[in-house]
Structures are given as structure tokens and as C-alpha cells.
Amino acid sequence: MDFGKIARKWREKWERSGIFEADPDERPKFFATFPFPYVNGVPHIAHAFTFLRNEFLARYKRMRGFNVLLPQGWHATGGPIVSAALRIREGDEKQKKILISCGVPEEEVEKFSDPSYWVRYFPRRWREDFSSLGGSVDWRREFVTTSLNPAFSKFVEWQYLKLREKGLVKKGTHPVVWCPKERKVVGDHDRPDEYAGIVPEESILVKFRQGNIVFPCITFRPETVYGVTNLWVNGKAEYAEIRIGEEVWIVSRSRVEEFLLQKGGGEVVKTFPGSDLVGLAAVNPETGDSVPILPSEFVDPDFGTGVVMSVPAHAPFDYAAFRKAVPEGEPVQVIEVEGYGGCPAAEICGDVTDRETLERLTKKLYADEFYKGVMKVGKYAGMRVSEAREKIASDLLNSGKAERYFVLPERVKCRCGSWTVVNILRDQWFLRYSDPAWKKEVHRCIGRMRFYPPEIEKNLRKAVDWLRDWACAHKHELGTPLPFDRDWVIESLSDSTIYMAYYTVAKYLEHPEKYGIDVNRLKPSFFDYIFLGKGDPAEVSAENSVPEDLLKEMRKEFLYWYPLDFRNSGKDLLQNHLVFFLFHHVAIFPESLWPRSVSVNGWVKVGGEKMSKSKGNFITLREALERWGPDPVRVAEAYAGSPGLDDANFDPEFVKTAAKRLVWFFSRFSELYGSGTEERKEIDDWMETRINKRITEVASLYEKTEYREVIDRLLFDASSDLSWYLKRGGRNSEVLRRFFETHVLMLSPIAPHFCEELWESMGKAGFVSLESWPEAGEVDGKVEEKEELVRTVLEDLRELKKLVKGEWKEVRIYTAKSWKYRARDLARKVEDPVKELMKDSEIRKQGKEVVRFVASLLSAPRGGTLSEEEERSYLTSASDFISSEAGCPVSVVRGDVSESPKALRAEPAKPGIEVII
RNA sequence: GCGGGGGUUGCCGAGCGGCCAAAGGCGCCGGACUCAAGAUCCGGUCCCUUAGUGGGUUCGCAGGUUCAAAUCCUGCCCCCCGCACCA
Questions:
Q1: From the alpha carbon of A575, which nucleotide's C1' atom is closest?
Q2: Covered bases, chain B (protein CB within 7 Å)
Q3: CB-strand contact A213/B, under 7 Å
Q4: A822 near A911, Cβ under 8 Å?
Q5: Residue A370: which nucleotide is closest by CA–C1'?
Q6: Per residue, what are the HEC states of A339-407?
Q7: Any atom of strand B under 7 A from CB of A162?
Q8: A723 in contact with nucleic chain B (CB within 7 A)
């Protein structure tokens, strides 16, 4: 079966008829979105997995009578594309290879030195691949972000004007990793990989003084300021004297640049060797003690300020150096820790001096002191260190004895090759996510929403609480300029917050020429009207040169589609994008337009392993589609996992299984659809019931986005039902017809091309994609139980085949003694079934047996609900079938009329079987 | 550290008080079909026992609640993910 060919055929038909182009009508609507992906590469199967979780639901909802909108846009805002383009310009081979591995012809690679070329090239690729996959997307609403798309940019600008009006954006300062040579912020994508993820840490700079000379000491443990015995400098390093106003600061020479950036300026007076400082003294600002300045080779002149306060009682490095420098000196204990004596550092490190061990011990001691330690001296004596630290820090800061200072925990190289420093940006724009009133509204929004799976609500609420102000604009990146400060470009997460609203009118704004709109003339009033209903249509029309009727239509269309019904993304977006998305919706839109649900899925592994290029298990969507065809891939993606934080697993082996199952289904279909007889048997009732139950069950699985279960039901359970039905002699043409029709319908959201093909083979007009979900008929509870009885007998016979050798002459099947049925029923209703049963003189004869049976029933309820007559008559009617399996005649005997040991042992739902040899 | 999610039989993965030795898939083993391979179909896949409906030991570890626990409670061990200015 050529899945690729079938898919192409139907994709063309869908496109020609435009069936996924959704416009408002009388039906209820359903609006689902997959967050626009960042288009610096091609889609792989993990993208497809997340997209399909929207797609499957969209197709299902369409069948439930909803007018479904599934649009798709592309994200290009931010730095990675810009820096990748730069690398191409610089001739970076690694970057070239990446492009070539995406399928870019080698001779075209050069074109990618222009960032805008990426934005033209990759969205096209994504669209092709998503279409090939069978995505039921309304492509008229496709768009890219950034100022390369003026219409979208206008929309983002409008949003920021609104936020500013509401006071939700403000200016502030912000520490960043900074390249002094290129004079720019160094994000992860601007560094060699090994430096990724390192960010500035806030520390306290304590100002030790000698007159107007300041010795700035960096510390993460301000509480130890009480235990300082001396300061350390590196005698072999170069230091500098910097004048700032009346003060003179001493900083190691290699840190001068960072220091000046963070202090906002100063004048380097002179430089000199660190050894010149040795022997001087400085005053501890907190205790007033004067402490000597001593040399230590442990001092890293490239970290912090190159001046360090020494706390030998609590810091292993200081202790090791202190012992050497001041053998007779006495460390000063300021923290008391359970399990340690008067000088914890001494105890823990003895006379160790090697750097590695000291580092390990430092970690341990710092942790012990923080969590278990209690302050021994100072204002907060008696308080736990974990509480005192913050208080001491803020006291020091407030009294001017210390300042905030940012340091990099490890050195970071810029891609240009220079070492970076920490800079403080002073005119950074922030979104005021810390605003409690704003947070409160977001929580209210969450309270009205539905989550898939429900547990993620907790994660989301936590993220809302933890969110601080967010630096929302950058420089030198792609995006939309901040309308009130055009040097800044709105950062990538910050322009992706309410764009789902843009989809509702994108079909107009992305094709303005068709509607006579000039997007360059659009003003905020236009968006005010469309999205907020503000303003007089006639005036808005005049101001924006958009016909009044069109304006009204757009407003209507927005209100038709909004709010968003469903948004599924990878779990990585939970704590950032999805939270921002909620914040901005509550800020801009009225409550009635807040999002209705959010869904997430885990990472996608391939064959049980994390997908990575180096492992060779990296599969692009295009590769997968070419290798296996869209429907098998879709089935395998559906089967890969359920909603939630757990990882999904795309199993290449399973794609083959999926294809085989589909082929199996197809060949059964070809053989049986339209064939069969009029004759109606009991097994037909069973099959009908199974079909009906499955319709209901699969519907609820789709609603819960449990697609893996859907595949289980449709591809495995259903086929085993069909096999059983055929084995039992089922051939009713109506039942067969219904089986195939309902299952094709139910499977169509996941394997749409395949199902279209079968639908057509059935002689049906129109697309299965536009059909309604099948109606579930009556479910007969007993018929399944009856059939289960036959299965039980068959399994037992199979066992006996192995054990009873010789030629079988006859098989007798015994129902249980009738008192056992009564006992079974009574055991469910009555407190003391034994007593009740014993009232019957016939039963009383069985005495002991009754007690034993009832006791076992109470400990393990069982026995079904069928009566003896029902069991016997059903088994009788199935006796031909059973006999053909047994290979000899079969008789069904009422348990009450036999004293055979097999009859005595029979129980309800568990007939006794006797083989006559 | 803070926060979140988990540990189920060879693997993946359901189950979340009793019909649970535990669905389904994959893998593996046997059989049928075939010249053969593949595909397909049938059967098996914790151990023991047995003319089946029986027993034993299992669901990270250790306790506890209950007539009854993979499922509830307590403690412990282990694994994964997020912690930001970045897509």
C-alpha cells in the first residue's frame, strides 16, 4: 500500500476544495493553536508530535459539528537567526553543515548570511512539511513575526501601547553578560556551546576602608562579615586604583572594565603590583575592627574584584591560607553548627591544601552552615543563617556599608573570542509581571480554565507566583521595535503573547491587496476597534483607510473565533510562554475573551532515547514522511504518548507496525465490506454492542487528548473484535458495513488520508474529514458477558487439550448448581448470606459446601450477573462453535441434574468441563 | 536549595482498594503457511502444580491501616524536568 500516493491524492483534493479554510458561520466554533515554532531550521518529529496533538483534536471537533479554526504562523523574533546568519557571513563551517543537513543546497548557503533570507526560506519549508503531514490548517492565515511583516508588527506595537497605557511596562536596570569588544549582550546563542546557561549572580560587595580608600570585597555570605580576620589580595597580580568622586577603589586590573561598567564610570589613577598592598590595613565596616591585608595565591584576580575578605573559621580556602600566613592567628567563629566545634573550617579540612578538595569541602560546609547553622554574634545572634543572611545583606546595603554587585560564577567567552564581563543595562524596559494585582487576575483566569492533564494547573500557578519583572526588549535582534523607544526591539517571548487574536483577522491583514487595505496606514485605532470594540466605525474607517463594512466584518470575525479554545505546546513553554500568554490576555482583553484551555506534552524520544544529532536518531519530519508515509507516521505519533510532563516515545519500529495494522484493516475491508448475509445471530448483537461501546469510549478519549489509547482501541482492540466475530461465524452484512464505516470515521482524525481513501471505496460522496462522528447505538450489557462465557470455555478447553491426551469423544459443559447463583446474588445484597441461604431446606443439605463457597465469594467477589438459564441457553447456542474448536460433540448440561465432580466444581461464570475419552 | 513529576512483570506502558499474575504494544520462544526468507495467522512468555476453575512469589525499599493493597497512610532510597531575559 502506497501511503505517500494516497496522501498526495487527498491533500490535493482538500486544497482544491479549501475545506480547512474556516470562516464564521452558524455552527459553534472551536479554535486551536500550536505555538508558532522558531524557524531557524526544519521541523522534526517532535515538532510534529506537538502540532498533531492540536491537529487530532481539531479534526475530531470538526466531526462533532464544530466550525474549527486551526491556523499556523512562524516565529522569527530574537537573536539566534541573526547570529547564525552572522556565522554564515564569517564562513563558519559548522553552521553551513547545519543548513545543508536541513536540505539547503550547498550553492544557496551564502544567501543565509542575510537574516531575512532565513525568514523567507524556512517558513516555506515548514508549511510544506505540515501540509504533507496532512495538517488541516487554514493557510490563508499564515504569517511570520518581526518587522519584516508590517501588519503583524503593527499589531505588536499596538499591544505595547496598550500595556504602557496600563502602566505595565517600565524602565529599570538589568545585569547582562557583556562583550567589551563587540559592545553587546552575549546571549547563549552568541557563545561557544560550553558556555551556555551561565548567568550573572548577585553578590554583596562589602566596603572595607582605609580613609577614603575602599577595598571592595565580594561575598555570597554577608553574614560572615563578623568573622573577618584579614583581607586577601594576590601579590603576583596587577591592581588598579580607581577614583570615583571622593573615593579611591582598589580592584584587580583585569576586573577594571567590569567594575567601571557596573559602577557607571570612574577614573583609573594608576596600576601597581598586588604586593604593594600587603601590610596595609582596612576597617571592617560592620565591626569597626582594623584587619591586615595579606597575600594569598588562592585569590583569583579574574573573579569579582580581586580583593577578598578572609573568614578562616568558616571558609576552607581562607583557613588553609590563614594557617600558612598567620600560623599563630586565631579564626573568629560567628556561626554555630550542630556537629561542628569552634572552628568548622579547621575541622573539615585539617591541613588539606589542594584546590579540588578545598572546593568540595567548601560546598559542603557552606550548605551545612546555611541550613543548620545559627548566628553566634552580631545583631541577629540566635537566628538561623538561612534567615539571617538576607537581613544582614539588606542592613549592609541600606547603611551604605555594602553595594550590590554582579559576578559571573564562571568565565564566559563570547563567540568573537573575547572574555565577557557583567554589565548593568540602565535603560532596560520591563514587563511588570511582579505586579500583585496583575498576578491576581492571571490566577482568576487560571481558575476558569481547563488543563490537559489537570495537574499542570499547579505548575502554572507556581510559575505565575514566581515570575518577576521581565526584560522585554533587546537590541540588535529581529523583531518589532518598541513603539515608544525605537532603539529597542521587543524580545521574542514578549511578542508572542496574544498573537492568537491576530489569526482571527490574518486572512485580511496578510492579504491586504485583496481587500484594499494599506497596512502601513493602520493606526492603533484600527486595532482598538477590531480587538476591543472601541471607537466609532465610521471614524476608524476614515482614519485607517479601511472600508467601514470590512472593519465591522473583521470585528465580527474576531468575536466569532475568540476566545482561544485549545492550545497544546511542549512542556518547555509551560513556565514561560504559556504564563506570558495568560498575563497578556488578562491585561488586554475582557474576561469573556480569556483563553479556555492549555495542554502540554513531554519531550519526544526516539526508540526510547533522547533525540540528538550525534546519536544519529534525529529524524526530520520530511525524512519520516518520505520513509513511511504520512498516516503511519501520524499513527505512531498518536501512539507515542499522552498529555503531560512525561516524555513521549516515537518508536520507528512502531511506525512499521502501524503501517501493517492499516494494511490489515484495508485488506479486511476489501474482503468483507459489502459482503455478508442477512442472517442475524447472537454474535451480531455482541459485535453491535462492541461497536457502540467503542464509539462512546473513543469519543471521550479524543476529548481527553489520550490519543495513544485511541490507537489501542481502534487498531488493536477493534481488529481483535473483528477476528473474534468472524471466528464465531459472524457474517451479517449490516454489521460488517457498520463496523467498517464507524471505524473509518473514528480513525479519520489520526489517519485522514487512509480513511478518505476507504470512504471513497465505500462509494460515499464527499470527504470523510467533513463527516459527523458516528452515533453510538444501544449497549447490551449482558451480551458481552455471555460472549465472555464462551471465551472462558474456549480457553479452558485449550488448557485441557494440553493435559488430556487421547481421542476426545465428547465434551460436557456443566453450569453451576443453582444454589450457587442464589448465593452469588445474596452475597452482594445481604449481610449474612449463609444464614439466608440456610433457610432453604434443599440448600441446607449442602451445608459445609455452602459456607465455603460463600466465604470465598466474600473474599473475592466474582461470578458475573447471568442466571443459570441464561448461561445454559447461550452456551447451547454456541455449542456448534465450541464443538468445532473441541473437535468433538459438545453438550451443555444443567448442573443441578448431574453429580459429576466437574458439575460440583462449576461456578457461575465458570462452567465445569468434562472430557469423555 | 526551591518547585514539579516519577519508580509496575525483558522493554514501552495501562491500572490507582476486591473478578490483578496485573490491559495493550514491542521483543522473544514455539507452531501453521512457504523451496526459503519476509509478511500473515495461531499459541506461549514470573515459578510450581494440575484433566483446566490450585498454590507460591511479584508492582523502588521498610513499616502501617484493612477481612482485602500495585492501588490508602508513614518513613527511606533512587531517577527525571524547570529555576528566566533565552528559543
A1: B82
A2: 1, 3-6, 11-14, 18-19, 23-27, 39-44, 50-53, 67-68, 80-87
A3: no
A4: no
A5: B1
A6: CCCCCHHHHHHCCCCCHHHHHHHHHHHHHHHHHHCEECCCCCCCCEHHHHHHHHHHHHHHCCCEEEEEE
A7: no
A8: yes
Q: Are A150 and A502 in contact (CB under 8 A)?
A: no
Give the closest nucleotide to A645 (alpha carbon vs C1'): B5
Q: Measured in angstroms, what separates residue A338's CA from nucleotide B14's C1'?
A: 48
The three cell numbers of residue A875 are 452456551
Q: Is the CB of A371 under 7 A from strand B?
A: yes
Dump pLDDT digits (tens) for A148-167.
999 999 999 999 999 999 99
C-alpha cell at A10: 487527498
Cell of A629: 508515509
CA Rg value for chain A: 38
Give the model confidence (pLDDT) of A579-600 as tens digits.
Answer: 999 999 999 999 999 999 999 8
- Nucleotide B24, nearest residue via CA and C1': A712
Rounded Cα gap, residues A519 and A508, in angstroms: 10
Q: Which residues contact A727 (CB under 8 A, 6 or more apart)?
A: none
* CA atoms of A703 and A714, how far apart (whole Å): 15
CB environment A20-55: b (16+ within 10 A), e (fewer)? bebebeeeebbbbbbbbbbbbbbbbbbbbbbbbbbb
Q: Is the CB of A806 under 7 A from strand B?
A: no
The string of pLDDT tens digits covering residues A792-848 is 898 888 888 888 888 888 999 999 988 888 888 887 777 677 777 777 777 777 777
- Residue A772: DSSP 8-state: P
% of chain A at pLDDT higher than 90: 57
